[in-house]
């Protein structure tokens, strides 16, 4: 058990509060109450500022979400348009490749025909100009 001297010394070490000490100084109690009131007011204002700051942050994030959704929608529309144009270009490219193949074959055929005609012209005797003129008069 604790001795009476240790109980008295422990009691004198802690400062008495306004409700514990009936003979306490009223001016000290008023100062303490004022400090407590100011601390509560300060805490209340700090909490109010904190809530306002959080609300501003939430509003900013909400605005960012709206802006990003709008941007995402615009980008999706642009991507769709690009895909549509790409498909049209691919279809046109396929058509042009087929036309190129067809025209290449036609050119090859015409080139062969020209070569054949040039070869035939050099191997056949040419009509004489006098014979042509004489033949022209025979038809009348």
Task: Summarize the topology.
Elements: H1 4-13, H2 26-123, H3 129-138
Defining key terms:
single chain; 140 residues; mainly alpha; rod-shaped
Notes on the protein architecture:
The protein is mostly helical. Helices cover 84% and strands 0% of the residues. It has 3 helices and no strands. It has helices spanning 4-13, 26-123, 129-138. The protein starts with a helix and ends with a helix. Mean pLDDT is 83; it is low at 7-12.
The percentage of residues in β strands lies in: under 5%
Q: Given the structure, what is the number of helices?
A: 3
Please give the oligomerization state of what you see: single chain
Helix content: over 70%
Spans of at least 5 consecutive residues whose pLDDT stays below 50 are: 7-12
State the shape: rod-shaped
> How many β strands by DSSP?
0
Structural class: mainly alpha
Compute the separation of the termini in Å. 163 Å
H/E element string? HHH
Rg to the nearest angstrom?
Answer: 54 Å
Rounded average pLDDT: 83
